[in-house]
């Protein structure tokens, strides 16, 4: 295999992205397809942001010389919903968070199937992969998708994940962060800067008929929120904003797409919808495999996260579909959205600011078609799947070359 020189990925300053590549289609890769095998170790119980990244890498890395396999520590929805079905998926379930015996089984998979690299995606998978990679004698890459200490409202899980990450991060051979904010976060955690590479998340470009030129929408205005609904995503704030907007006689409705993390949380949120009198104006679609189809039918995306984002895939997917995004000032989100150019950034938890931004987007005060086009162009310039996969492959290349 011929290895191209590894790009030097100096993390840019917060909020400033490196210059985007031209919007012209990328030239075809020069190397032969899929010559090195890399095993991605994933949790696997959900199909959400980190899993979308893994899935897209499974589909795209072969173009850059790497064949992807997956090992799932919590087999579940990733196996059911992934698109990268040509990649093998090994189920190596853990009996509990500290069932580290699983590392031996993982090391056996690495040796028997001749994987040259292990790539882990969560603190849990980092710990297991670290042990397995050392047993099998292969290098380890760790992908940081969100700040582990602020990942959920479960304080004990945050604490455990944070300390596992802190203990293992410097033992990985390379670390990938999905946004400059996360690079800075890991640097502050003491990770050696020469191991850190910022690889911006990316999502596919959409065909013209899906990401069509959008006109100024007319009422009723349809706002989508797409998520694995969990407390940190802040849907309550969006529901309150929706009620405020309806009180201002703006005809806005919400298309809520995605599963709830727990039945208890679903009950809680549905009770709030009822209390606010929004039952007719909120539609829950549950999980969909076709997010792009859902985005084609709405006028904007809202992401009211309260804390703990990396670089949310739903924001990039909406931009690719030519949709303005209204989201909160929450870690990497502000690196994707340009305030008043591709969408609006508001403060987390502020019902009024969220309502005002949506009102401004729909009441004609904003040049909606220009904003929609700017969002689509920004996606093409900075957040394509190919750019993400090319950067990941560049990090693999450099790592393998450094080990001879
Ligand atoms: C806890 C955690 O690790 N959070 C991170 C996770 O995103 P997190 O899971 O929080 O959410 P994202 O918005 O990034 O991604 C959700 C993904 O699920 C998909 N979807 C959702 C609903 C549905 O019905 N069908 C469907 O396919 C969406 O299209 C999207 O691709 O990875 C992101 C990508 O690195 C990071 O920015 C987040 O900080
Ligand atoms: O590894 P673990 O801590 O049990 O579980 C993780 C959660 O803490 C995290 O919130 C979620 O995003 C991951 O997909 C995974 O489910």
TrEMBL record:
SUPFAM superfamilies per UniProt: UDP-Glycosyltransferase/glycogen phosphorylase (SSF53756)
Enzyme class (EC, first level): transferase
Gene that this sequence comes from: mshA_2
Protein name: D-inositol 3-phosphate glycosyltransferase
Stretch list, region Disordered: 12-31
Keywords of this entry: Glycosyltransferase, Transferase
The Glycosyltransferase subfamily 4-like N-terminal domain, residue ranges: 48-203
Gene3D superfamilies in the record: Glycogen Phosphorylase B
EC numbers on record: 2.4.1.250
Biased composition (Pro residues): 18-31
Cell membrane among keywords: no
Domain Glycosyl transferase family as annotated: residue spans: 223-377
GO MF annotations in UniProt: D-inositol-3-phosphate glycosyltransferase activity
């Amino acid at each position: 295999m011929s290895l191209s020189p590894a790009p030097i990925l100096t993390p840019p300053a917060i909020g400033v992205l490196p210059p985007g590549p031209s919007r012209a289609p990328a030239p075809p890769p020069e190397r032969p397809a899929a010559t090195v095998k890399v095993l991605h170790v994933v949790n696997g119980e959900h199909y959400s942001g980190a899993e979308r990244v893994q899935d897209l890498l499974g589909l795209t890395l072969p173009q850059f010389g790497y064949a992807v396999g997956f090992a799932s520590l919590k087999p579940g929805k990733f196996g059911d919903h992934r698109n990268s079905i040509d990649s093998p998926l090994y189920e190596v379930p853990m009996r509990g968070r500290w069932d580290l015996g699983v590392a031996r089984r993982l090391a056996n998979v690495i040796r028997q199937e001749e994987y040259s690299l292990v790539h882990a995606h969560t603190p849990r998978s980092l710990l297991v992969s670290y042990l397995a990679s050392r047993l099998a004698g292969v290098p380890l890459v760790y992908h940081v998708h969100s700040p582990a200490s602020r990942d959920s409202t479960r304080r004990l899980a945050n604490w455990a994940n944070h300390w596992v990450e802190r203990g293992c991060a410097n033992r990985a051979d390379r670390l990938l962060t999905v946004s400059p904010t996360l690079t800075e976060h890991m640097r502050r955690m003491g990770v050696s800067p020469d191991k850190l590479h910022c690889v911006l998340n990316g999502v596919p470009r959409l065909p013209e008929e899906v990401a069509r030129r959008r006109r100024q929408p007319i009422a009723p205005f349809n706002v989508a929120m797409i998520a694995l609904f969990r407390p940190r995503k802040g849907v309550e704030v969006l529901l309150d904003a929706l009620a405020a907007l309806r009180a201002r006689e703006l005809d806005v409705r919400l298309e809520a797409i995605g599963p709830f993390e727990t039945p208890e949380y679903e009950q809680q949120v549905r009770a709030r919808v009822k209390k606010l009198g929004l039952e007719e104006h909120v539609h829950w679609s549950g999980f969909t495999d076709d997010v792009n189809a859902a985005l084609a039918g709405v006028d904007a995306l809202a992401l009211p996260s309260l804390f703990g984002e990396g670089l949310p895939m739903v924001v990039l997917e909406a931009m690719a579909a030519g949709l303005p995004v209204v989201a909160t000032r929450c870690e990497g989100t502000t690196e994707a959205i340009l305030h008043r150019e591709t969408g609006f950034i508001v403060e987390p938890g502020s019902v009024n600011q969220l309502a005002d931004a949506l009102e401004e987007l729909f009441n004609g005060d904003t040049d909606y078609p220009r904003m929609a086009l700017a969002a689509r162009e920004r996606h093409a310039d900075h957040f394509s799947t190919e750019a993400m996969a090319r950067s990941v492959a560049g990090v693999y290349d450099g790592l393998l070359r450094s080990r001879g």
